[in-house]
Design brief:
alpha+beta, Jelly Rolls, 7-stranded mixed sheet, 6-stranded antiparallel sheet, 13 strands, globular
Length: about 260
């Protein structure tokens, strides 16, 4: 079909926006340092105001967007990580070499100031969360659909980096009951499990515990591969709002 010149121009300008939507929330754009022998996040051993622990990087989720500020503060006589997002999106990430056969369980604490106005993890233009714990996995990409592989190829052309085979997130969300699985609206290679956000959760520390292996098998329908990275994410770039959250120590433990 022959398109008028104005319509051809619209089509050309629309394509980059579609590509950007496909790769958002997936990019881990920088190489990460080696992990120590005892994986975990121990903010409580640091002093308030100190630099972030060695091996942790504040990485933009999408290049060009403002980054979330992560700082060590004192809360109830304990050092925790405070995340301040102002129309921003970046993740505090670490390279992963967690032995899931030995320590498949993750236990952590977090506190969110409250829900993000207008946020909805099921809608691409509203996909923000005050608190997330995320894991990225390696895997056999040849098993993916042609559509998924095409999106990953486009993302690599734009970013210069390979995308994770799969990403599992635990999220603070008011849009669904705890235990609900939400696929990222841009790609089903990112799956979110709601663990917080019920009435009474705002402004309160919560202690949470999940079996990563069982959750991965539940949402991706296969055993997990090697974890390539893990970290924390507080973002408000889609809703153009502000939020604050706090993260305590994270531990990897034996099952069940």
């Amino acid at each position: 079909m022959h398109l008028p010149s104005s319509r051809r121009a619209q089509k050309r300008t629309a394509q980059p926006a579609w590509i950007a939507a496909c790769v958002a929330l997936l990019l881990l754009p920088l190489p990460l340092p080696a992990q120590d022998e005892n994986p975990g996040i121990a903010f409580s051993t640091s002093e308030p105001g100190a630099s972030l622990p060695a091996g942790w990087k504040n990485l933009p989720v999408v290049r060009g967007k403002p980054i979330t500020q992560y700082t060590l503060v004192q809360d109830d006589h304990t050092t925790v990580l405070q995340a301040d997002a102002n129309r921003s999106a970046s993740a505090l990430m670490h390279e992963g070499n967690i032995d899931l056969a030995r320590t498949p369980v993750v236990a952590w604490r977090w506190k969110a100031d409250g829900p993000i106005a207008g946020a909805d993890n099921r809608v691409a233009s509203k996909e923000d969360a005050p608190a997330r714990l995320m894991f990225m996995f390696d895997g056999d990409k040849s098993k993916l659909s042609m559509f998924d592989r095409a999106k990953m190829g486009l993302a690599k052309q734009l970013s210069g980096e390979d995308l994770p085979y799969a990403t599992l997130m635990y999220v603070w969300s008011t849009n669904a009951a705890p235990g609900t699985v939400i696929a990222n609206p841009r790609t089903n290679r990112v799956q979110m499990i709601v663990v917080s956000g019920q009435p009474g959760d705002a402004g309160r520390w919560q202690s949470l515990r999940r079996n990563i292996v069982q959750d991965y098998e539940r949402v991706f329908h296969e055993p997990p591969g090697r974890i390539t990275g893990y970290g924390l994410l507080t973002d408000t770039d889609n809703t153009a709002t502000t939020t604050r959250a706090w993260y305590g120590d994270v531990q990897f433990l034996p099952g069940p």
